[in-house]
Amino acid sequence: MASPRLSFRNITALAPMVRVGTLPMRLLALDYGADVVYCEELIDLKMVQCQRVVNTVLQTVDFVAPDDRVMFRTCEREKDRVVFQMGTADPDRALAVARLVEKDVAAVDVNMGCPKEYSTKGGMGAALLSDPDKIEAILKKLVAGVSIPVTCKIRILPSLQETVDLVQRIERTGVAAVAVHGRFKEERPRHPVHCDYIQAVAQAVSVPVIANGGSLDLVKTNADVAEFKRASGASSVMLARAAMWNASVFSSQGPLPLEKVMEDYLKYAIRYDNNAFNTKYCLCQMLRDKVESPLGKQVQAAQTNTEISKAYGLQTFYQHTQEELQARRDTSQTSSQPERPVMDGDVTTMAIRFERREYPPQITPKMFLLEWSRKEKLEQPHYDTVERSQDRSFQSTVTVAEKKYRSSLWEKSKKFAEQASAIVCLRTLGIPEGRIGEEDSGLVSKRKREGKINGSAEEKRKKLHVASIPETVSSGVAVETNGDHHRAEQP
Fold first, then answer.
1. For the residues of 156-198, what is the DSSP string, one character each?
2. Contact present, 381 and 392 (Cβ < 8 Å)
3. 309, exposed or middle or buried, with CB in 10 Å at 0-12, 13-18, 19+?
4. Axis-axis angle for helices 195-204, 160-171 (nearest 10)
5. How far is CA 316 from CA 270, 272, 321, in A?
6. Is 159 exposed, middle or buried (0-12, 13-18, 19+ CB in 10 A)?
7. 12-16, 396-400, 422-426: which has the minimum mean pLDDT?
8. Which of these three, 233, 254, 275, is where a domain ends?
């Protein structure tokens, strides 16, 4: 059943803040009455390399980078209410990221208002405001390419007319809403928000306009949200810092004591295995001027979620949660089935990554596949490797006995991609691959396993190396060694 389309009229939203829009904070905001929550701005170059992983232990969907960092984590509860916000300056990359996450979020948003250097130096964030053609290209590509709503967030331009003209152009791309931060690119939170600009934009377009930037001056409690909406003439209100300081600002019953809010937040952080340093950062932001209090100093000194839990007297909750998660891990490991091959046209695929640490120093899956092919008197395995331009990742297809095998995961190097395809072939055929702890199959000789080669091969290696030196210097051709086999390859 398809998710309901998110409406951006008459909502309050937790806007993304750097390092804050993680799952625990978003769920906390929903608890207290936020209608929509945004993730923190995530850069397209990092996200496009991620793999979607269903986390059965945490009951989440994780988007995991090649270095195993979780870049974005979400769950079923927020699926129809979370907006994925990205930093991008490239239409094709933006679309690739949007398609990666579109089944797990309610909408995608392009941040065109961030003035921080990490965003603008790549042509993203507020840097896009000076390139309306690129803005239009990105948004049109997204609107046409995904099945969920697309929105964007901007800052106001030097003149009112420029701002109105830009938003009208954005509206014509087909976006579902536009968030307007009522400050100029060079202004910071200490500067007053320009409600008149937001109001002029709202009157000039029919698409919902979301007012942003009122946390410091205009919104202290939930009662102020309606006033900010009225003053700006917007359809909706987006809060960032006010929600970070006390997420119960969304509650129609009035703000809750900060101690209660911090405890509720910390329970979510423990439940969803939030990074300890992110948890510390969020708690310190909530403490604000009390960060040097005894509790604040204890939080600042903590290095783990265990120590943070102790500071708030939640040791028992932490321990019970860890026991519950471990029980799920045990169940998952017991019931998990080996990765099964899936046909992609005429190619057998499996979601497998080559982990070098799982193999002895001298052993690789490619070596085992080559030796098995020789034993079976088959042609040498042939590897066809392609590079994905947007993130320079690689995927390889190996052909053995006229059948093709490939990992569905992209690797960070050509060599790793080839090893991954070799693993798919070996596991599909039930052939040993040489992993640590695997019983010796006899496919690879003891000399090769121990990294020893006979004198003849050693002599050939030396001769090849010497012969290659002038060529390497003059033409840039490098000689790559793989076991006893050599090939010249253009770097």
1. --SSHHHHHHHHHHHHTTT-SEEEEESS-TT--TTSPP-HHHH
2. no
3. buried
4. 40
5. 12, 16, 8
6. exposed
7. 12-16
8. 254
Average pLDDT over residues 205-212: 97
| Burial class, 352, CB count within 10 angstroms (exposed 0-12 / middle 13-18 / buried 19+) | buried
Residues designated catalytic: 114
Report the candidate in 204, 193, 121 with the shortest Cα–Cα distance to residue 163: 204
Dmax (CA) for the chain in angstroms is: 85
* 53, amino acid identity: V
Q: Are residues 77 and 155 in the same domain?
A: yes
Nearest Cα neighbor of 394 from 410, 371, 415, 375 is 410
Please name the residue that has the structure tokens 């098995």: 372
CA distances from 407 to 180, 254, 274, 342, 349 (A): 43, 53, 30, 10, 5
My answer on whether 89 and 158 are in the same domain is: yes
Question: Considering the domain boundaries, does residue 274 fall inside one?
Answer: yes
- 194 in any annotated domain: yes
Tokens representing 215?
Answer: 């946390």
Task: Tell me the pLDDT tens digit for each residue of 373-416.
Answer: 999 999 999 999 999 887 788 999 999 999 999 999 888 899 99
List residues bridging with 411 in a β-sheet. Answer: 394
371 within some domain: yes
Q: Determine the Cα–Cα distance for residues 324 and 49; give it in Å rounded to an integer.
A: 31
Give the CA-trace dihedral at 51, 57, 60, 62, to 10 degrees: -20
pTM, 2 dp: 0.73
Single residue among 281, 313, 336 that ends a domain in this structure: 336
CATH label of the domain that carries residue 20: 3.20.20.70
Tens-place pLDDT, residues 326-340: 998 888 766 655 678
